[in-house]
């Protein structure tokens, strides 16, 4: 399996989820050529910004006095991308940017904000960097900036380089990313929340060494980014799943998470709503929680009275199976997302009265 193909897949999956990617390699590996090639293959523009030769105002925007006050006028590269409504913004030589420029790139990388201009959703953010010790006047990435990227080591093989020399660099491998539907999005969220329920100490683990703060590490932000991006990668694409996971939460925790996912084997949340008996509710609490989390997420995204009422079925089954604490934990978010016209089932009122009291639903109509 081509590593370059996995890299292209990760870039695509992250782009669909609005997650910025950082390509890390020695100088001369062809990072900018890859991004230009991907953009050309998709028929969208690619704007390259060299932070090492920019001042903070060149990226954040220059202040301009208008009749209504002072605005930050966005630079031309941002205007061109906004007009195109799609494309790639390639932030090159990120580790040669001084701290003041890195600080400006915080908003650009994650919020897609340049000056007072919000870039369209169709614009994808990719950065390129050399290790600080191999960059000209290199700077370590600040922890807040590092935690905003999916870090991908970029090292094309000899065969991939030979292919590029032969056919040109404008034809990168095809992406294997998929467009996640609602069910898959909720299922992947459940994998993440189920793992954190199992290993809460991994929710936020700031690195203990200075070197570690410039790489990927688990935080509330990076877990949310992983859930969003991983939904766009096929379950059988091991190379892309691993690169994406390691790139957002680090290798150590990433191995634990992927191992947990392999053993979770979660069912389709829509199938569980239709027939709660397909799940063994007396099984591992972390797996039961993950199943319930997917069910609640699916019902919340559906936002219908029918889906909300049906979602209580698996929770009641869990409570009856001897895990009322797990069921109550899932009942809190489900109660909070009640559609306006939904009536609380009588069995739910009797079983989860404390939760309904806290959500202000005790006095609601019962069916």
UniProtKB/TrEMBL annotation:
SMART domains: AAA (SM00382). Gene3D superfamilies: P-loop containing nucleotide triphosphate hydrolases. Residues 17-159 form the AAA+ ATPase domain. It comes from the Bacteria. InterPro entries: AAA+_ATPase, ATPase_dyneun-rel_AAA, P-loop_NTPase. SUPFAM superfamilies: P-loop containing nucleoside triphosphate hydrolases. Pfam families: AAA_5. This is Dynein-related subfamily AAA family protein.
């Amino acid at each position: 399996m081509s590593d370059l193909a996995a890299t292209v897949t990760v870039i695509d999956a992250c782009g669909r989820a609005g997650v910025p990617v950082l390509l890390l390699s020695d100088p001369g590996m062809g990072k900018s050529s890859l991004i230009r090639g991907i953009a050309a293959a998709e028929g969208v523009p690619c704007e390259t910004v060299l932070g090492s030769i920019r001042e903070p105002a060149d990226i954040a925007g220059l202040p301009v006095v208008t009749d209504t006050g002072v605005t930050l006028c966005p630079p031309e590269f941002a205007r061109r991308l906004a007009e195109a409504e799609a494309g790639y913004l390639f932030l090159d030589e990120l580790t040669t940017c001084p701290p003041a420029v890195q600080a400006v790139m915080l908003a650009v990388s994650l919020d897609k904000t340049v000056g007072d201009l919000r870039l369209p959703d169709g614009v994808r953010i990719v950065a390129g960097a050399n290790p600080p010790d191999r960059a000209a006047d290199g700077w370590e990435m600040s922890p807040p900036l590092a935690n905003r990227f999916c870090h991908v080591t970029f090292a094309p093989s000899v065969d991939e380089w030979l292919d590029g020399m032969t056919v040109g660099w404008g034809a990168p491998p095809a992406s294997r990313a998929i467009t996640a539907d609602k069910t898959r999005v909720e299922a992947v969220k459940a994998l993440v929340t189920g793992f954190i329920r199992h290993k809460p100490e991994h929710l936020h683990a700031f690195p203990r060494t200075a070197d570690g703060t410039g790489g990927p590490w688990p935080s509330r932000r990076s877990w949310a980014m992983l859930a969003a991006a991983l939904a766009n990668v096929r379950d059988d694409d091991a190379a892309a799943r691993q690169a994406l996971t390691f790139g957002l939460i680090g290798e150590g925790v990433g191995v634990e998470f992927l191992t947990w996912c392999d053993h979770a084997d979660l069912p389709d949340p829509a199938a569980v709503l239709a027939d709660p008996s397909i799940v063994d509710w007396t099984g591992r609490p972390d797996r039961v929680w993950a199943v319930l989390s997917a069910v609640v997420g699916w019902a919340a995204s559906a936002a219908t009275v029918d889906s909300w009422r049906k979602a209580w079925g698996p929770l009641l089954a869990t409570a009856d199976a001897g895990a009322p604490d797990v069921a109550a934990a899932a009942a809190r978010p489900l109660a909070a997302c009640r559609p306006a016209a939904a009536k609380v089932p009588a069995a739910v009122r009797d079983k989860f009265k404390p939760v309904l009291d806290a959500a202000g639903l005790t006095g609601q109509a019962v069916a």
